[in-house]
From TrEMBL:
GO terms for molecular function: ABC-type oligopeptide transporter activity; ATP binding; ATP hydrolysis activity. It comes from Nostoc commune NIES-4072. It is a multi-pass membrane protein. The chain crosses the membrane at residues 79-96, 165-183, 189-205, 267-289. Pfam families: ABC_membrane (PF00664), ABC_tran (PF00005). One of its GO terms (cellular component) is plasma membrane. This is ABC transporter ATP-binding protein. SMART domains: AAA. PANTHER family: ATP-BINDING CASSETTE SUB-FAMILY B MEMBER 10, MITOCHONDRIAL, ATP-DEPENDENT PERMEASE MDL1, MITOCHONDRIAL. The keyword Ribosomal protein does not apply. Keywords: ATP-binding, Membrane, Nucleotide-binding, Transmembrane, Transmembrane helix, Transport. Residues 364-598 form the ABC transporter domain. It is found in: Cell membrane. Residues 36-330 form the ABC transmembrane type-1 domain.
Length: 603
């Protein structure tokens, strides 16, 4: 995804070039205290987890050295008391180890949940502020993949991976420090010789895996996009008997995802066996040279046994290093995608001028407005249009003439290329976006209903509405009759996108929603385009009631629905070519008259 920024161009570039981990740490700065607490608990737990080999060494030392053991040198000469003291020390270590394990598990997992929760909300809220152009260039499935799969991938790493990295690092430091303190330098060198190669190999694998997991996340995004589109369009797939075709296309995307995963697995699977071989070198060196040193009296048998167990204990964390780096690279690939989304610039910036809805008169003015979609010719060309407050105007024209684009520009779903749009003589770019959009009610030809009850969908946007107000709005929209005939009435579930209702029923619910909102400006964008004549008549009756003393813009193909408008404008290729009342336009015998004759059957 290409990120195009406005004013903060330099800072965005710097952020985007940073490593994903650095970007995550910058984002998670508010959790710094929790991170330090979790890290400290992990370190303490690792130290305590390595204590049993030392306790075993002390036990061996007591049996072999007896009065000259560690406790003997501290003044405890009796063997029974030495073992009692060792048992007490073991109990204390075990209790502290269990407590620290509980603490780090709880803190890391809560931290993962908090970051996951807040990151998903921040990403979603950011997406809501992006302009419509972004959604035209992005797939729903891809966004779902980022907001769900990628953030979950990050949670999985924070739950377990971070603690494992701290565990291995702390174990290495303790082992190397203990070996330097106990062993002769040449034995320490031989035992630790593989460690630099292990570290170097780990980072080399990390860099090679990074690109492969970035490809994996990209492929899963394509796959999710295909699934989301197909499920949304399942009726079209069935009606065109395209099941086999879509199954083949899904199989192709799934196969690409499988292959990209296979390439990553091929590399990551080789990591553990290589680490085992490198650890074997150090363990064998310690086994032989340490044994010779113990036999020669250079170190005690207890110290020799401690080091053998410690190296063996270190073997398993190092073996799991491959799995940890695997999780790390998956999470970093996901982190990059989430952070790139958060870094996507918001192009529609809210203004700082507030306009309470009660003060809106509804006078609208387009002055020399030009607009073009990205990399396309202008669809609106130096258009000027004045709509007096409280009047109803209609805009008609052929498909693609720019009618619906005017609505999007008025709502600031897009920003104009040049010119100005004002409401009550205030430039809408200076208006607070919330105030602007609250003052406008939109009834679109493509009605979107949310999965929930009819009452919830009517009250959408007016969330504090009472049942009485919801029912009154439905009656004005002439929706109450059909709603009451449904099994659960206003509590009937409409299904996803309102699929359980007919097109006309959805339209009337959308009108009821606009009535309840009671905006000073009403936009009807092909509000009766997909309904039968009877439903259209019902909708027209309700519209006549709700447009009184309200600024109304009606966009329509069916000219019969707008013949009573105060003024009708005809658009062609982004320009207003005719205007006037219905009768005046018929007298002109121009484009409007031709359209009217076609629809009314006049030859």
């Amino acid at each position: 995804m290409t990120i195009i920024s406005k004013s903060p161009r330099v800072s965005n570039k710097l952020i985007n070039s940073a490593h994903p981990l650095q970007r995550l740490l910058n984002y998670g700065s508010q959790y710094r205290q929790q991170i330090w607490q979790a890290t400290l608990c992990s370190i303490i737990n690792t130290i305590l987890d390595l204590a049993p080999p030392w306790l075993i060494g002390i036990a061996v030392d007591i049996l072999v050295e007896q009065q000259n053991s560690v406790f003997g040198k501290l003044g405890v000469k009796d063997i029974v008391w030495q073992f009692l003291l060792l048992s007490l020390l073991t109990i204390i270590v075990w209790i502290l180890e269990s407590s620290s394990e509980y603490a780090y598990n709880r803190i890391w997992r809560n931290l993962a949940q908090n970051i996951q929760h807040n990151l998903r909300l921040d990403a979603y809220n950011h997406v809501q502020e992006l302009d419509s152009a972004y959604f035209e260039e992005s797939s729903t499935g891809g966004l779902m993949s980022i907001l769900n799969d990628d953030i979950n991938e990050l949670e999985d790493f924070l739950n377990f991976g971070a603690n494992e990295i701290i565990n291995i690092t702390t174990s290495l430091i303790i082992l190397i420090g203990g070996a330097l303190f106990i062993l002769p330098p040449y034995i320490t060198f031989a035992a630790m010789l593989p460690m630099p190669f292990i570290v170097w190999g780990s980072f080399s694998y990390q860099k090679r895996l990074e690109a492969r997991y970035a490809e994996v996340r990209e492929r899963v995004s394509f796959l999710n996009s295909r699934l989301a589109n197909n499920i949304s369009g399942i009726t079209t797939i069935k009606s065109f008997t395209a099941e086999a075709y879509e199954s083949a296309r899904l199989a192709g995307d799934s196969e690409a995802y499988r292959k990209s995963n296979t390439k990553a697995i091929k590399l990551s699977a080789a990591f553990v066996p290589l680490i085992r071989m490198l650890v074997l070198v150090g363990f064998t060196a310690l086994l032989f040279w340490g044994g010779m040193a113990a036999y020669g009296g250079q170190i005690s048998i207890g110290s020799y046994s401690v080091l053998l167990v410690l190296v063996q204990r270190l073997l398993w964390p190092l073996v799991t290093l491959g799995e940890i780096f695997d999780k790390y690279q998956r999470s970093m690939a996901s982190t990059k995608r989430v952070m790139d989304l958060l870094d996507t610039p918001i192009n529609i910036i809210t203004g700082d001028k507030y306009l309470p809805i009660a003060q809106v008169r509804g006078e609208i003015c387009f002055k020399q407005v030009t607009f073009a979609y990205h990399d396309r010719e202008p669809v609106i060309k130096k258009l000027s249009l004045h709509i007096p407050a409280g009047k109803t105007i209609a805009i008609v024209g052929s498909t693609g003439s720019g009618k619906s684009t005017l609505v999007k520009l008025l709502l600031r779903l897009y920003d104009i290329s040049s010119g100005t749009i004002t409401i009550d003589n205030i430039n809408i770019q200076k208006l607070n976006l919330g105030d602007l959009r609250r003052s406008i009610g939109l009834v679109s030809q493509d009605v979107f209903l949310f999965h929930g009850t009819i009452a919830e969908n009517i009250a959408y946007g007016t969330f504090n509405a009472t049942n009485k107000q919801i029912i009154e709005a439905a009656k004005i929209a002439e929706a109450d009759d059909f709603i009451m005939r449904l099994p659960q009435g206003y509590e009937t579930i409409v299904g996803e996108r309102g699929q359980k209702l007919s097109g006309g029923q959805r339209q009337r619910i959308a009108i009821a929603r606009a009535v309840l909102k009671n905006p000073p400006i009403l936009i009807l964008d092909e509000a009766t385009s997909a309904v039968d004549n009877e439903t259209e008549a019902a909708i027209q009756r309700s519209l006549e009631r709700i447009t009184v003393n309200r600024t109304t813009i009606a966009i329509a193909h069916r000219l019969s629905t707008i013949r009573n408008a105060d003024c009708i404008y005809v658009m062609e290729y982004g320009e207003l070519v005719e205007s006037g009342t219905h009768e005046a336009l018929l007298d002109k015998k121009g484009i409007y008259a031709s359209l009217w004759n076609v629809q009314s059957g006049v030859k």
